[in-house]
Amino acid sequence: MAAAAAVAIPTADADWTVVRRRGRRLGDAPPTACHPDAPPPLPVTPIPWAPSDPSLDPARVSRLVARTHAAISRVEASRFYRRLLLPDSPLRRRLVLLEPVRISLLGVGSFESCPVARLQLALAALLRRDLLPDAASADLFDPVLSAVECAAAAELGFSVPSLDDGCRRRVEEPTLFYMPHCEVSLYDALLAANWDSPAQLRRVCVLGNSFQWYAIQAEYDRSGPAAKAAHVLGARRFACEEPVGETGDLDDEDWFTRAFNETSWHFFEVDDGVNLAASIAGGRR
């Protein structure tokens, strides 16, 4: 049976409000065809990382860069992306206030073997070009990346870290984290690393799975992964959430829809006086 999911949309006066819309069955997760079904446990502290396939073929790198540029052109021409670029949208105004100077693409999967992952990388490249300052930096990471993918990422302007931090990444500057269809534990790890003060958390913006939907999952399954994500559940109290687009905004093609469905922006406009520790306790309840 389909269930109504909670999301937020901009109102006429540019505020965002939570509304109900039809969604997938309770307990279902977004499509993750490019990610392993059973991801390994997250490292508690950063550990050295090297590509899963160390072989480096320049011809494969060139082909992958060309295929990614084709994906960038496709996303750029879509109704979905034009909606994101509306000059007076609440999203753009919130990004101006945040002033992100970095974009991190985490959990992208293998963008050489998976069309969904290439489209997601294409969106990250466009967001950096069109919505972030010219000097903004960019990085991407997934433990499954190969040496070919790391080399292609470098040609596309993305650095690849040599440590796997399990998304426990404390930011030093306002950062847009694009985490397409990641496991809830990864979002929770990122929030936990920046949970020590409201000022620190305000530096974070997350583009990824809907936190409101995770709250619905937690109510449905009290022992499931969403119910254990205390920071994600606590953050929904002050997170401003907006979906990137409804079904009608996405191209009528399977790979494109699977790349961007069930994805929302999250800004954490938390007041200085908020007790973040109490918010975690409230999320657990």
Characteristics of this structure?
SRR1-like domain-containing protein, 11 helices, 285 residues, two-stranded antiparallel sheet, 37% helix, alpha/beta, disordered N terminus
Description:
With 285 residues, this protein is α/β, with parallel strands linked by helices. 37% of the residues lie in helices and 19% in strands. The protein contains eleven helices and ten strands. The protein has a six-stranded mixed beta sheet, sandwiched between helices. It has a two-stranded antiparallel sheet with strand order 1-2. Strand 1 (2-10) and strand 2 (16-25) form a beta hairpin. Helix 1 (58-76) crosses helix 4. The longest helix has 19 residues, at 58-76. The model is unreliable at 1-33 (pLDDT under 50). Belongs to the SRR1 family. It holds the Pfam family SRR1. Residues 101-267 form the SRR1-like domain.
